[in-house]
Amino acid sequence: MAHKLDAAMAAIEVENPKLRGVLYRDFGRLSIDAGKIGDLLGIVGQMHFDPKEHASRDVFGEVYEYFLGNFALEEGQKAGQFYTPRPVVQTLVEVLAPFEGRIYDPCCGSGGMFVYSERFIEAHGGKKGQAVLYGQEMTATTRKLACMNLAIRGLDYDMGREYADT
Predict the structure, then answer these.
(1) Per-residue DSSP letters for 23-73?
(2) More reliable by pLDDT, 135 or 60
(3) 36 is in which domain, residue-wise?
(4) What's the pTM value of the predicted model, to 2 decimals?
(5) Eight-state DSSP code of residue 132
(6) What mean pLDDT comes out for the span 56-60?
(7) How many independent structural domains does the chain possess?
(8) Residues 77, 158: one domain?
(9) 3-state SS string over 66-125?
(10) Across 22-26, 67-71, 150-154, which has the greatest mean pLDDT?
(11) Does the pLDDT value for residue 51 go beyond 70?
(12) Cross-referenced PANTHER family, in alphabetical order (predicted)?
């Protein structure tokens, strides 16, 4: 089962080259019970995501954000390295009012400001992708979280070639 996950991650990277090197592809080396992986895949496989039904919602993005937020709560103080609470990000975006152009976040964490900037643009009559998203993150794992967060939502971004400090 773990090898199937590795193959699935490789296939996703082929379809989305920006995720190359971002997704975990070594599930075969982990000591996770194949039954548990199968159960998880079964649950995910039963989820119904009809694009027509959820056209106005970012279901996968919402699920990702939910888990990221809960993980941040568990991490406590260390979570500040990758997660800024939703109200703080929303306030920042409302003040900046990024209608178009370039949006740069030099310490982007998991990419929340980019997500809310895109929502702001769409809420004000703009289109997805109207702004160009540039980010930098100094922690490899956090950079991967940002790349996945943006890819799940279908957002185009430039996070540089590797993680680095600004």
Answers:
(1) S---GGGS---HHHHHHHHHHHHH----TTTTTT--HHHHHHHHHHHHHHH
(2) 135
(3) 1-47
(4) 0.73
(5) E
(6) 65
(7) 2
(8) yes
(9) HHHHHHHHHHHHHHHHCCCCHHHHHHHHHHHCCCCEEEEECCCCCCHHHHHHHHHHHHCC
(10) 150-154
(11) no
(12) TYPE I RESTRICTION ENZYME HINDI METHYLASE SUBUNIT, TYPE I RESTRICTION ENZYME HINDVIIP M PROTEIN-RELATED
